[in-house]
UniProtKB/TrEMBL annotation:
One of its GO terms (molecular function) is sigma factor antagonist activity. Keywords: Membrane, Transmembrane, Transmembrane helix. The chain crosses the membrane at residues 76-96. Residues 239-308 form the Protein FecR C-terminal domain. It comes from the Bacteria. PANTHER family: PERIPLASMIC SIGNAL SENSOR AND SIGMA FACTOR ACTIVATOR FECR-RELATED, PROTEIN FECR. Residues 103-195 form the FecR protein domain. This is Iron dicitrate transport regulator FecR. The keyword Membrane applies.
């Protein structure tokens, strides 16, 4: 849920606190009605009021406080108003609702952008699955499959953690990408820093902006290394950037976006190095480009498998 603006939110909270405390004078009620006549104000107030309704009901205690003499606000009313202001302020700062247990999935070739309740943004890559586990004390997400780019909303009270590939990734004010592969996972940091904690061993490693790191559920597989993170994020524009990678690895990457399986019977062909920028949406165009830059040819079978072999002379 996204509120209209910070200024209107604060005004809505202030009006709600005054109304709940029972201290509005006739003049203030008229001012409140004038404020509420603005459509954006009314919409924001209704959302804040809905958030209030889900908080514990003060019941008889609040009613009793309202019946006390009006020479001044009772201690209870002031305390309750302060608690209400704090609770609603937390909701506004952290995003409402505080709890979120949604699950997001993408099909092959599909990309999806998710804006979470706290303002954090997730770009979910093709054939991926993400579970959101936001609670009152922590913002936790679990990448179950595929790849995602996380842009974390800063200055929040609750820590932000991503669980992926047998490790916990702790945000340190950042933007980072996580990709899960069959035998390992990759962290690439675009801004800020991320601390990786391996579940099995407790190993910890900080990775800073412009670096990447490989790990699995048992151990860290590499030290943080300088990386062209923008090239790794080219999938957001439906592009794949390869810089002298083995052909077998490049084709595995393409399989994430296309409903196809590649077969390379000759190990020497599998080890051919591929470099360049390719689109991942058009399989035929990719294969045409592949045959142009490498001495290979592609043959499709009826079961959807594509065999890549060395091109025959002549």
């Amino acid at each position: 849920m996204i509120f209209s603006s910070d200024a209107i939110r604060r005004q809505a909270i202030a009006w709600l606190v005054r109304r709940q405390s029972g201290t509005l004078s006739p003049r203030e009620r008229r001012a409140f009605e004038r404020w509420l006549a603005v459509p954006d104000h009314r919409q924001t107030f209704e959302r804040v009021a809905a958030a209030w309704e889900t908080l514990p009901d003060p019941g008889d205690a609040l009613a009793s406080a309202r019946r006390k003499p009006r020479r001044g606000l009772s201690r209870y009313t002031l305390a309750y108003a302060a608690c209400l202001s704090l609770a609603l302020g937390l909701c506004v700062l952290e995003g409402w609702p505080l709890h979120d247990e949604s699950v997001w999935k993408t099909a092959k070739g599909e990309l999806k952008t998710i804006v979470l309740n706290d303002g954090s943004r997730v770009d979910l890559n093709s054939d991926s699955e993400l579970a959101v586990r936001y609670g009152i004390r922590q913002r936790r997400l679990e990448l179950r499959r595929g790849e995602a780019l996380f842009a974390v909303s800063p200055l929040k009270w609750r820590p932000f953690e991503v669980r992926a590939g047998g490790a916990a990734l702790h945000d340190i004010g950042t933007r980072f990408d996580v990709a899960l592969f069959a035998d390992r996972s990759r962290l690439a940091v675009s801004a800020g820093a991320v601390e990786v904690v391996v579940d099995a061993t407790g190993e910890r490693q900080r990775t800073d902006a412009g670096q990447s790191l490989f790990y699995n559920g048992a151990t860290l597989l590499s030290e943080p290394a300088a990386t062209d993170v923008d090239a790794l994020l080219a999938w957001r524009e439906h592009r794949l950037v390869f810089r002298n990678v083995p052909l077998v690895e490049a084709l595995k990457e393409l399989e994430r976006y296309q409903p196809v399986r590649f077969h390379i019977p000759d190990p020497t062909v599998a080890r051919l190095q591929l470099g360049g920028v390719f689109g991942n949406e058009d399989l035929a165009a990719f294969l045409t480009a592949l045959e142009r830059v490498l001495p290979v040819e592609a043959t499709s079978s009826k079961n959807g498998e594509i065999t890549i072999e060395r091109r025959r002379p002549g």
